[in-house]
């Protein structure tokens, strides 16, 4: 039976990440907590808005209401990477060779490992950011589509158009597809080699969480009373194919998803705080955590896929050991 080591915190959990095999919990109040030889924490921001691990899972990258971009190491050492004055840093992404992308208002920025920084201006707000899995290419979700920048060169950006407000971006692990979350409860995608469109609609709520399966064959998403899992095995991606619907629980909405690092299994977090693990092949379910006081807002597996760190909008957090 899975066992849960609880950690009761007092603010909305924005993100969780494993750094050097230690679970870190980034909270909206600007404090990052960890469990290691007791409960420790680091105060990074006057209000934290976004956070993600770097590509090596060696540090946590954060952005805040104070206009600062920070890097936190597992040993508690923190460094200011950038500051943009009294502006909110609303999105952050980890890039190759130690680069960091972040956004504020209509501007997206890329900071390189040597401290150089480039700024990219857009006509409307720069929303979600994502780096391509290969090369130095940054996608910026924006109103009426997405823009692909090549920060290491002076080349012209690639514009991908689709009407509506695009709020998040993710590349498929093989780099063939770019998918955006939209304000109108839908996903949109482009097959990058030829620009072909993909429309994934029918969600009753906004998609605020997504996760690619271990080999990039599936994209699991929140925004419905089940985890909606789209197939990306074929050259056309999910077009003409029905998604899997995993972990359906009546009217209780899925609020967060996290695919296992090795198996085609997803951890599914719900609006009532429950967490299930569900296998794609046969939809077998395992209860990882019973309902709590608030919606699950963040989850992350450790690199071995044995432990799952989670956090909620009320601060209820912890680590599930699936081996018991």
From TrEMBL:
Entry-linked PANTHER family: TRANSCRIPTION INITIATION FACTOR TFIID, TRANSCRIPTION INITIATION FACTOR TFIID SUBUNIT 5
Matches recorded under SUPFAM superfamilies: Quinoprotein alcohol dehydrogenase-like
Lineage per the UniProt record: Bacteria, Pseudomonadati, Pseudomonadota, Alphaproteobacteria, Hyphomicrobiales
Span of domain Anaphase-promoting complex subunit 4-like WD40: 261-322
Domain of life from the UniProt record: Bacteria
Record's protein name: Anaphase-promoting complex subunit 4-like WD40 domain-containing protein
């Amino acid at each position: 039976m899975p066992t849960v080591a609880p950690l009761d915190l007092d603010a909305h959990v924005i993100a969780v990440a494993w750094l050097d095999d230690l679970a870190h919990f980034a909270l909206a109040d600007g404090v990052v907590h960890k469990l290691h030889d007791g409960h420790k924490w680091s105060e990074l921001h006057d209000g934290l808005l976004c956070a993600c691990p770097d590509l090596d899972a060696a540090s946590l990258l954060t952005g805040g209401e104070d206009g600062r971009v920070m890097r936190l190491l597992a040993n508690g050492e923190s460094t200011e990477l950038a500051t943009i004055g009294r502006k909110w840093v609303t999105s952050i992404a980890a890039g190759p060779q130690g680069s960091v992308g972040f956004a504020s208002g209509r501007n997206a920025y890329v900071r390189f490992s040597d401290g150089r920084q480039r700024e990219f201006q857009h006509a409307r707000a720069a929303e979600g950011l994502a780096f391509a899995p290969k090369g130095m290419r940054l996608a910026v979700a924006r109103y009426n589509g997405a823009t692909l920048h090549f920060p290491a060169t002076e080349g012209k950006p690639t514009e991908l158009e689709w009407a509506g407000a695009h709020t998040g971006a993710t590349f498929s692990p093989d780099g063939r597809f770019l998918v955006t979350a939209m304000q109108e409860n839908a996903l949109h995608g482009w097959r990058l080699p030829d620009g072909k469109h993909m429309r994934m609609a029918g969600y009753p709520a906004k998609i605020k969480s997504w996760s690619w399966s271990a080999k990039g064959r599936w994209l699991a998403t929140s925004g419905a009373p089940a985890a909606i899992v789209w197939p990306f095995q074929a050259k056309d991606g999910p077009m003409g194919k029905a998604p899997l619907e995993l972990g359906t629980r009546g009217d209780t909405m899925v609020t967060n998803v996290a695919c296992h690092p090795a198996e085609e299994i997803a951890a599914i977090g719900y609006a009532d705080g429950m967490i299930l693990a569900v296998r794609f092949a046969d939809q077998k379910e395992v209860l990882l955590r019973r309902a709590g006081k608030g919606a699950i807002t963040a989850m992350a597996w450790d690199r071995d896929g044995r432990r799952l760190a989670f956090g909620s909008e009320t601060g209820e957090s912890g680590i599930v050991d699936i081996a018991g």
